Amino acid sequence: MDLSPLWISCAVSLASTALTTVIAVPVAKLITSLKKLRRFLDILLSLPLVLPPTVVGFFLLILFGRNTLLGRILDALKLNVIFTIRGAVIAAAVVSFPIVYRTARAAFEQIDPDLIDVARLLGYSGINLFFSVYVPLSFRALAVAVILSFARAIGEFGATIMIAGNIPGRTRTMSVAVYTAMQSGDRRLAYIWTAVILALSFVVLFLMDYLVSRQYRSSEHD
Question: Within 10 Å of residue 50's Cβ, how many Cβ atoms?
Answer without folding.
Answer: 9
